[in-house]
Design goal:
It contains seven helices and twelve strands. The strands form two sheets. The protein has a seven-stranded parallel beta sheet, sandwiched between helices. α2 links the parallel β4 and β5.
Length: 257
């Protein structure tokens, strides 16, 4: 049975999702964006008309409108995939909306399958280096100059994974350091320049050597593919999930164990 989706936010990610959906046999039933002229399957707001026949909504908008979008979508009993970042301080509010409306919701700091494998690789590496205090950890990320948030959601997640698995690191620092870093701090630096889709590097440094784990995105296709996979997975499910729940089901285990 064909999956029918609505794309909310028709920017570069929305357009990539639309193109890939057609290739994967997923029907884009509607596109919702207040800044594009209403015509055909393009609508300016989330309502009963724009979500008619839709199974799952994929939201790549911005954190300022995310809660309002979730309220409207959930009230219409549609399941939701959220690729928007920087809203996580409102997670409890979102959970309550989903629970009250008995719908399904899945989000990710990053929908790339490769990045989600990176989370697990980083956790395992941190456990190994945790046994060797001669190594110190660092991390940095690079993104294009149009990205609105810094650090990226992926950087925050990677930092959390490292701190959870390293006894010597207690605090994630993502701002500029104008002082000597404390031994229990992990500095995760961010650079914004050019058109870089996304690069994340985790490093372990000692007097003898440096070991790095690196993920480099080649474009938006990997993120779109993951979001569409999440839409297929969340369809007909109820409850609040993150992308790691889907990954656990596919390959088993917990990245933070």
């Amino acid at each position: 049975m064909t999956l029918n989706i609505a794309i909310i936010g028709y920017g570069k990610m929305g357009r990539t999702i639309e193109t890939l959906a057609h290739e994967k046999g997923i029907c884009v039933k509607s596109i919702i964006d207040p800044f594009i002229e209403k015509q055909g399957k393009i609508y300016n707001e989330i309502n009963k008309e724009s979500l008619d026949g839709v199974d799952v909504c994929i939201d790549f908008t911005c954190p300022d409108v995310l809660i309002d979008n979730v309220k409207k979508i959930a009230a219409l009993k549609k399941n939701i995939v959220v690729g928007t970042t920087a809203w996580y301080d409102k997670a409890e509010q979102v959970k309550n909306i989903i629970k009250d409306n008995n719908t399904g919701f899945i989000y990710a700091h990053n929908f790339s399958i490769g990045v989600n494998l990176l989370f697990r690789i980083t956790a395992h590496a941190a456990k190994l280096f945790n046994k060797f205090p001669q190594y110190d950890e660092y991390a940095y990320e690079l993104h294009h100059n149009q990205k609105v948030d810094s650090p990226s959601g992926t950087a925050v997640k990677l930092g959390e994974v490292l701190i959870k698995n390293l006894d010597r690191k207690k605090k994630l620092v993502t701002t500029r350091l104008d002082r000597k870093i404390e031994p229990d701090e992990l500095h995760f630096a961010s650079v914004r320049t050019g058109t870089i889709p996304g690069t994340h590097v985790i490093g372990f440094d000692s007097l003898a050597d440096t070991i790095e784990i690196k993920h480099t995105a080649r474009g938006r296709t990997g993120f779109a593919d993951g979001a569409l996979s999440a839409a297929q997975w969340i369809n007909e499910k109820k409850g609040y999930y993150n992308f790691e729940d889907m990954m656990d089901e596919i390959i088993g285990g917990d990245q933070n164990e």
